[in-house]
């Protein structure tokens, strides 16, 4: 990658992070003692296919798009969030384990776990556009500053050019001075990146420029409201933010429900520019 392109990447990102001053005022800089923890509340409960091993989730034009995992069961789906109806589906080959999902300019990018591939599709009809090599394991994916952001189970986020899927840069994620390992499903939220941590019931709110966790969203209470006992690997793993309706969706692998949640502190953190509370309840 050229020096000029790398400089352009960071210059463009810096123009988008005027919110940094806001979180300094609200929280103060992330310190060696770790980021603050926020609680959440459930606004709505929606149906979810309990056989879906959810690996990636996003919202586009009022529909949920989901990538599911497990060998022989990995799929790409378009779902009606109100009814849980699968409106369109594409199955991956039997030897591929589906992972994170990102949307960039009407194209979906679906990661694979260990196949070393990223599948690019047209969002309207799921037709294949390209297959790209992935130099790491694929876990979670989102978009920030015209880059596809990928987690690989480590404490790093990789930034890739969506036109070539060449790596641009990597950022170490830390809570204070401590590395945050096993970053998994990702979502972009108001200039931040949300990330769940494998086998933990919490979501990290990450400054993508510095890699610092500025807050944690505690979702451990969801285990008490799930309508059935779940297998050990049915963990939290699905984050989608609808910037039009200001809704934050969360779900998990094999969960029978999707939850729309609100986090009041996030409203203050973003100066009410990215509300997570629906206008009607």
Account of the protein in words:
- This protein is mainly beta.
- About 10% of the residues lie in helices and about 45% in strands.
- It contains three helices and 23 strands.
- Strands 1-20-19-18-17 form a five-stranded mixed beta sheet. A four-stranded antiparallel beta sheet has the order 2-23-22-21, with no helix packed on it. Strands 3-4-5-6 form a four-stranded antiparallel beta sheet, with no helix packed on it.
- The radius of gyration is 18 Å and the shape is globular.
- The N and C termini lie far apart (about 50 Å).
Q: What is the strand arrangement across the widest sheet?
A: 1-20-19-18-17
> Unreliable stretches, pLDDT < 50, 5 or more residues?
16-31
Approximate strand percentage? 35-45%
H-E string: HHEEEEEEEEEEEEEEEEEEEEEEEH
| Principal-axis shape | globular
Distance between the termini: 48 Å
Helix content: under 10%
Largest sheet: 5 strands, mixed
Q: Could you give a quick summary of the protein structure above?
A:
This protein has 281 residues and is mainly beta. It is built from 3 helices and 23 strands.
Write the layout of secondary structure elements.
Blueprint lengths: L2 H13 L4 H7 L10 E3 L1 E7 L6 E7 L2 E6 L6 E5 L6 E6 L6 E7 L2 E6 L4 E6 L5 E6 L7 E4 L2 E5 L4 E5 L6 E6 L1 E2 L2 E2 L3 E7 L2 E6 L4 E5 L6 E6 L17 E7 L4 E6 L4 E6 L1 H6 L12
Parallel strand pairs: 1-20
Antiparallel strand pairs: 2-23, 3-4, 4-5, 5-6, 7-8, 8-9, 9-10, 11-12, 12-13, 13-14, 15-16, 17-18, 18-19, 19-20, 21-22, 22-23
């Amino acid at each position: 990658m050229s020096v000029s392109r790398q400089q352009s990447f960071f210059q463009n990102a810096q123009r988008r992070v005027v919110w940094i001053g806001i979180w300094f005022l609200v929280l103060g800089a992330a310190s060696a003692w770790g980021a603050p923890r926020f609680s959440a509340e459930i606004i709505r409960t929606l149906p979810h296919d309990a056989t879906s091993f959810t690996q990636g989730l996003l919202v586009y034009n009022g529909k949920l798009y989901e990538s599911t995992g497990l060998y022989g069961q990995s799929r790409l789906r378009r779902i009606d969030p109100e009814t849980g109806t699968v409106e369109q589906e594409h199955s991956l080959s039997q030897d591929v384990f589906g992972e994170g999902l990102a949307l960039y300019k009407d194209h979906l990018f679906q990661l694979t776990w260990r196949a070393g591939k990223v599948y690019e599709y047209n969002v309207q009809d799921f037709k294949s556009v390209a297959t790209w090599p992935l130099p790491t394991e694929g876990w979670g994916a989102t978009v920030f500053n015209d880059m596809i952001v990928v987690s690989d189970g480590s404490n790093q986020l990789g930034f890739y050019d969506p036109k070539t899927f060449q790596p641009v840069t990597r950022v170490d994620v830390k809570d204070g001075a401590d590395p945050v390992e096993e970053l998994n499903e990702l979502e972009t939220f108001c200039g931040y990146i949300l990330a769940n941590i494998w086998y933990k019931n919490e979501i990290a709110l990450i400054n993508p420029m510095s890699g610092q966790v500025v807050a944690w969203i505690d979702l451990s209470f969801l285990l008490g409201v799930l309508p059935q006992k779940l297998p050990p690997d049915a963990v939290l793993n699905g984050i989608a933010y609808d910037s039009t309706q200001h809704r934050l969706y969360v779900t998990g692998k094999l969960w029978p429900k999707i939850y729309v949640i609100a986090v009041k502190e996030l409203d203050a953190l973003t100066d009410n520019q990215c509300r997570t509370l629906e206008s009607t309840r």
